[in-house]
Amino acid sequence: MNSPNKSLQKNAAIVAEALSEYIESSGTKQAPVIHQEKLEVLIERLGLEQHITEGDLSGEKLRAFVTDYLDATTRLHHPGFLAHQVAVPNLTGALGSWIDGSTNNAMAIYEMGPAASSIEYFMINWMLSKIGWTTVSSDRQLDPDSSHGGGVLTHGGSLANLTALLAARSARVPGFWKSGNPGNLVILVPEQSHYSMKRAAAILGLGEDNCLSLPADQDGRVLPAEMESQINELASRGKRVMAIVANACGTAAGLYDPLPEIAAICRQHNIWLHVDAAHGGGALVSAQLRHLLKGIELADSVVWDAHKMMCTPTVCAAVLVRDHRHLDHAFEQEASYLLHAKDQPGFDFISRTVECTKAGLGLRLFMTVAAMGESGLAAHVEGLVEQARSAAKLIQDRAGFEVAITPETNIVCFRLGDDDSQQLEIRRQLLEHGDYYISSTLYRNIRWLRLVFMNPLTSLDDIRQLLDDIEEIHSHLV
Ligand SMILES: Cc1ncc(COP(=O)(O)O)c(C=O)c1O
């Protein structure tokens, strides 16, 4: 029998070979970008029952399984992948996920993963500095007199948004944790905000009905000039605004809210400002695009997903606060087996997160940035935005097509004709053909087709072909 180490090397070589063929065949469009077979068919084809009964998934059995598995995946490495805000992962970063899985250092406490914790600490500081916030060495991290920034990596932007709003609740309504909801709290969010905001309001005990929309212009950007009267009107009804959320950028069309103006009103009313930069935070790494996030440093908290524009394998989201104390005090939990006096050569993230066992998410982010280099990463983000802007021009110039709004980031909303249900039918047929995988969204109460440029391999010729295909499908609908 092989030693575990020999098996690892043999099995890793099998997986590496299969993955390498998969990435090559995806990039060269030798297989559909999406092909959704029925769940029962896949359970059967992948031999799941047989594999768990037999055990010993290695060698040729492993090769067969991985080949079948890869065959049934949605191919993000395919140039036709234009659907969602999920990175085409950097493969060195993906090795970070593998190392993390193999070492299993549950690093929320330093002693359970010194290397992983140190890397998370370093990458959080890197992100804080991109925002323009103060970073410090670990020994001063919990200094109650120091108001430097802080943060933690969480399993996704939705959890990060919840955590940021929890920090807001703890900072602005300190008695809530013990005594519960005083009953008059609301949060104000952009009408284009991600659904995780409403969920967070419900989970935090505010109630979804107390997550209200901010005034917006016709494109859905927050209108700071009308915020003042909304806040005053709420106050006259005895309501208290716990937090205001701004998008940088919104999910549907990728628009950035005017952060300096929103921040000024929040400061004036002592309201917590949370900036959801889960998607658009990627622009912080680019000198050319940084202006889109002007004023972000005035926020109290920011969420920034690395697994969106930053090529990092899912998941890896950062919740960042201007003053670390707000996150450090957000959870008031006792856990005597973890939190007690001890020698502490590093930093425990556990008090900043919902999670107890936490993966070493920083490693995949660090290895991605280290593989690409900061300038390579900036060029990548700029390239995605450029792809979207060029595609929008191309679409706009085609007869019958309409682009919803000039893209500010890598998202393009467009449609052919003016029938909402036809847009959904076009998308359905595209996915069925399997050459393109695109999404669809409601924006300004209209149904649009939506392209999210995540793959540097997607060319303008791909978009031309996509438009031809859409015209062809549409011609049979009208
Ligand atoms: C603006 C925004 N915020 C939050 C999220 C949620 O992030 P995650 O999917 O990592 O939970 C998304 C996801 O698309 C988003 O676009």
From TrEMBL:
Cofactor field: pyridoxal 5'-phosphate
N6-(pyridoxal phosphate)lysine: residues bearing it: 308
GO process annotations (BP): amino acid metabolic process; carboxylic acid metabolic process
Alphabetical UniProt keywords: Aminotransferase, Decarboxylase, Lyase, Pyridoxal phosphate, Transferase
Gene3D superfamilies: 3.90.1150.170, Type I PLP-dependent aspartate aminotransferase-like (Major domain)
Domain of life: Bacteria
GO molecular function, one term: transaminase activity
SUPFAM superfamilies per record: PLP-dependent transferases (SSF53383)
Any Pfam family matching the protein: Pyridoxal_deC
GO CC field: cytoplasm
Family: Belongs to the group II decarboxylase family.
Name the UniProt record assigns to this protein: Aminotransferase class I/II-fold pyridoxal phosphate-dependent enzyme
